[in-house]
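Worked problem 6 (solution included).
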Amino acid sequence: MPEKSLIVINPNSSDAVTAGIDAAVTPLRGWGIPIRCVTLAEGALAIESQRDADLAIAPMLALAERLTGDALGFVIACFGDPGLHALRDQTQLPAVGIQEAAVATALTMGQRFGVISILPASIPRHLRSFAAMGVLDRLAGDRALGLGVADLENVERTVAKMTEVGAELRDRDGADVLIMGCAGMAGYRDRIEAALGCPVIEPCQAAAVLALARIALRPTNGEYD
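Solution. The predicted structure is:
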């Protein structure tokens, strides 16, 4: 039987994206709680629209149900947090979405946050989530790269475009902290932060930190066992 872990679910079917998420959370493995990153085989190759996100919810919930016996908690590793509230209905274990966690972290690091998104079609679903969270007055802007998830594997082009868009969010929109708005960007945080000279949040890391804290502070009465 596998060791119980924090389960990080990539709701798309890209193993390359899952590998990037796994690398991003590796520094947190020293905290003593195992972290396991898994791919939703039934998911779309990329989640780039509300429709893509919505179609991932049912199979993602089914995967989480199958993994519950191996789980200490869950992270949904897709910006927009598809199925987050349904997962919280389904399990008593900690369940964290990367968008919600990234925004919560950003609010502790700056006054106004900016989001680097992949495509223009992603922005409306982000804004709906920000509105539901009640944080629109702290949002400086949400700007798209014009790159799909698969395009993010081109390192030099992605870093150049993310730096360009991040500078616009910082200089034109007044963001003093930036959020990378796609799990597929997971490997680029250090380079973008160094190029822009302001805090950059990688959302899978932010979500894993919150989930690990919840797990460490879980009740001792067996509620989450």
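Discussion: The first strand starts at residue 5 and ends at 10.
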